[in-house]
Design a protein that fits this description.
94 residues, 4 strands, four-stranded antiparallel sheet
């Protein structure tokens, strides 16, 4: 069953989000983060961000989780306030 790593960040202003977006668009996905897809949501009024990474299996999740936990704080959108692991029970897209 696919898994999702859902992370919330506080203190993410619009300038920082634009910087993160620019950095992500100009680079390749790291080999040590085998996520199949990721979504970044931003609430500029609350200065919060939500990042959802989708992994195909437990091994990929573990590998990505370890790499992401080892990242320097300056490489993240803001101050990480929570990390939660979910099973992807249902998904629909166009």
């Amino acid at each position: 069953m696919p898994l999702a790593r859902v992370v919330t960040f506080d203190g993410v202003d619009s300038d920082r989000m634009a910087q993160v977006q620019s950095e992500m668009e100009g680079s390749e996905r790291p080999d040590n983060i085998p996520a199949k897809e990721f979504i970044v949501l931003h609430d500029p009024e609350a200065a919060k961000s939500l990042v959802i990474l989708f992994f195909e299996n437990e091994d990929d999740y573990k590998r990505g989780d370890e790499a992401l936990n080892a990242m320097p704080a300056g490489d993240t959108p803001g101050k990480r306030s929570s990390v939660t692991k979910y099973q992807v029970a249902f998904r629909m897209a166009d």
